[in-house]
Amino acid sequence: EEPLAAAPVDFLQELPSCQSARRRRGGTQERRPALLGTAGSRGAAARALQQERAELTARPAREHAMSIAQKRVLRDSQQAETERLSRWKKWRRTSSKSLKKALSEVKGLSSYLVLWRHDIHSIEGKFGTGIQSYFSFLRFLVLLNFVIFILMFSFVTLPIIISKYGIFNSTIAYISPKNIEDNCTIYEPSGNKGLVYFHTYLKDLFSGTGFLEVTSLFYGYYSVDAMWISIMRYKLPLAYLLATFAYLALSFLWIMKRSGEGFMQNLVHDADPFQSYCNKVFAGWDFCITDPNTAQLKHRSLQYELQMDLQEEKLKQKIAKRTMKEKLRIYSLRIFINIIVIAILSGCFYSIYRVTVFSQENSNDIDNANSHANLLVQYLPSMVITLANFIGPLIFSFLIQFEDYTPAFEIKLTLMRCVFVRLASIGVLLFSLWSQISDCGNDKCKPCGYNYKLYPCWESDVGQEMYKLMIFDFLVILAVPLFVDFPRKFLVTHCPCKLIKEFGQQEFQISDNVLEIIYGQTICWIGTFFSPLLPAIAAIKYFIIFYVKKIVLIHTCKPAARPVRASGSTFFFLVVLLIGLVLAFIPLGVSIARIPSSKACGPFRNFNTSWEVIPDTILEFPTVVQQILFGMASEAFAVPFFMIACIIMFYFIALARAHKQVVEQLREQLALEGHDKMFLIRKITEAQKDN
After folding, report:
1. Total structural domains in the chain?
2. Is residue 108 one of the residues assigned to a domain?
3. Judging by beta carbons within 10 Å of its beta carbon (0-12, 13-18, 19+), is residue 579 exposed, middle or buried?
4. Where are the alpha helices (DSSP H) in 25-86?
């Protein structure tokens, strides 16, 4: 094929893109048209074109955008070409087609095995992708907790079960505590003995005490040093600690992998406001919606988002026109409101601290051990935390109205405050427990290194607190639909009172529901070290919550007419979940590295802290391996490693800046191509008029 004739050079130099390039260079040099090129570039382009055509002809006929008759002709030509091939090439092509077909069928069948596939698609069709993303996020947490449970059960619980029953000729090796007083090794769980009432079992089920305290649910059950499975020695302390690191690393990597795609989309979305506006106008409609009422809500949602964009632009103009007196007034008001917020948070945290101390001191009281009020005393911290999580966001939503922020920033700041009050309350609870565990007044810690009289096995006590938080949070989630959502729906539907009618049907608030389950997941991450089977409870909890929320959504709720824009993206959910995971690292790190381990229970009773099992294991390695590992932990290795990491980081920062410049140039080129098209259309129109 002959190449197309090149356009005249003078005409190409009249294009807006060429003139723009000349202006950027100062207008002193003539630009050589790119279409003319060199012989080498034309040859490379021809080879690339031939390779592309060969790849197109090798594709199956069904992948081409042709009519049926053209596809039949193409198929016949491909079959005729196949007959001329050698046997080896025929076999390779046939096996490649068969493999692709088998993989396609397996992929199609595996889609039917996805959990809640039909339910989530149904929710997406009736309520749009915003609410669908919440249920997909809930499914992700179910799978994550199930994998964590499999990990902890396989490496921690299962070896003990195998050894206790002598499977695979296995035995348990107990090592007597070294350099520890006998008083510190006594641990007598308050298990039920003899005939007990049924309500006692219920109390133990909700509080984690009694018969549950001596089961594999809590840390105190794993008081084993090593196991012999056939001829292999299995160190449970090392496996317990490595399994903890493994589930934290697995959670972190899984969240980062899922949030990578959403981060790229948000980066592109926030880079150009005009592009965001075009996306709303030309690509904002959700074609998965089939319900007319939901379609109307989607119309209102898009209208609201456009109005909010305009409102933000007006606020930006208003901010730019503020006088110094107005700025001083607004900043003073914001400082005052933030002082109020800090005071509210301090009051909540102090209440949690005092209630936790009161609960720990009175729940272990011997005189109160058999009373029904003991269960209420044990659940006081969970109740106060739930109350703070309920009242705090309401106050924050009211105060944010007076701070005069843009709507988007209002939403982000309110959500961040809600996240802080939810997740920090767990940290305050743990701090309260640690202050009691490490309370060394009157020489309480002298023999054992911690408050042994109040907490003979403090890890199990922390696990019980996490267990109670998990159970109470689940009960609250079940109680709200039963006592709030369904009665409200009944009154709105059947009560003729105008006030109730104006109150209206409730909306499904995605952000509140997401924060609710992230709070529970943070509890699970922290509690898994102290209660290895807690992920199984969390997986069952989220499995039930899925159906509860689905029933509430379909029968009592309507999607929000003004949804939070960030809540429609799974990336927002994963960012908040990542914050919860990072906050979970802190109490776990303190518990493992700083607080003395219990000397009466658990796999780390022969170590001062849980972390000491790592250097103790390294000392069993050969001398060369020890020197390598200790050298990697020394300053001589850390300083060069830090410098190399900084160099790599600066390289990627520079690379990102270069990519950003290329993207800006490509955007400018796209805009110039639009101007070129308009110029050519105008020239063609003028030429037609002259003719």
Report:
1. 2
2. no
3. middle
4. 39-58, 68-83
